């Protein structure tokens, strides 16, 4: 097992009707900005429920309109509101985009330099951020219990990430019944995103981290088991509850304890979303199986462990077992509406431009061994 530190201060308040506890955990006298996305939190009643809990004890403003793949440009408008109304606490109500956007607002509101530098990480370091909390409506990203975020600049079609302990949510409310209104496409995306988060931390090379491996395998098996009920039974509380908790655990840091991490699939995927607007999870489902095929030798031991423990594959040569595990993964993704190529989504790719973007963003040595060079990324992009 590798050396590690684990730190996660986010309180999770989990279960049906837990939004009613919101006010209990807010700092007394807080001046709050509620941040939300398009219409979903209004239509399913979550926003009203939140406002009812806040009134009349808290001063609040609301800022809506955060896009999926939240835009830098929109978030700056929220920063103006924070400053104008002397807001000192942010409350995200929504999915990963709203939460990531809120994490960005928390930093930008107190940042004295050009806020784009928060993403390019050039110049002044972020030293402070407003406190925040979340009410999650879409299980997928784990953003409700981690200190990461991904922001898109519409003007330049760039999608960049940040990570700082300053933006761990103080608490997150996870009510699985708030997911009942999710469209099928977002449920599919959420399952695939959390499945791939788990794999980006699990499917590298063995370091005898037994606890972390069994945790990861437990999450993979849970997602495989509940996926049909999540998709086909819109009000199956137990399926939604297990989905929500699995998605949170997939990216709250616990699966990274003592193990190497990959993340190449995510880095390459962000470039596809930035240029073509394809849903985050759909980019991952395209890239991951191709990356595994190209990196079969380096990932051999873990691919065999995955084949045996997740898919129960015991017959054939090692190569056949690995190929079968990759094929079963692809079938699982297909069962969730994922397609096999960019062309299947009607996207005509520009591989040279995508490779140039990876280079521009410093993604020239990706993966757990740092050996996913631009040449390998190009091979992946050519095959999807
Ligand atoms: O905008 P509204 O109207 O709220 O609709 C949203 C949006 O259209 C809708 N939705 C959310 N909750 C709903 C609902 N519709 C009906 N009922 C509900 N209960 O779903 C759509 C997608 O929402 P979005 O927040 O964009 O999805 P997701 O949670 O998958 O977040 C994706 C973003 O998170 C980033 C992605 O790159 C992408 O920008 N990620 C963040 C990570 C992190 N912070 O750790 C890690 C991930 O790998 C990922 O990169
Ligand atoms: Zn992801």
TrEMBL record:
PROSITE patterns, per the entry: ADH_IRON_2 (PS00060)
Top-rank lineage group of the source organism: Bacteria
Pfam families linked to this entry: ADH_Fe_C (PF25137), Fe-ADH (PF00465)
Keywords: Oxidoreductase
All copies of domain Alcohol dehydrogenase iron-type/glycerol dehydrogenase GldA, residue ranges: 9-176
Residue ranges of every copy of the Fe-containing alcohol dehydrogenase-like C-terminal domain listed in the record: 191-350
UniProt xrefs under InterPro entries: ADH_Fe/GldA, ADH_Fe_C, ADH_Fe_CS, BDH-like
Cofactor(s) needed for function: Fe cation
Recorded GO CC terms: cytosol
Record GO terms (molecular function): alcohol dehydrogenase (NADP+) activity; butanol dehydrogenase (NAD+) activity; metal ion binding; methylglyoxal reductase (NADPH) (acetol producing) activity
Family of this protein: Belongs to the iron-containing alcohol dehydrogenase family.
Protein name: NADP-dependent alcohol dehydrogenase
Organism: Orbus hercynius
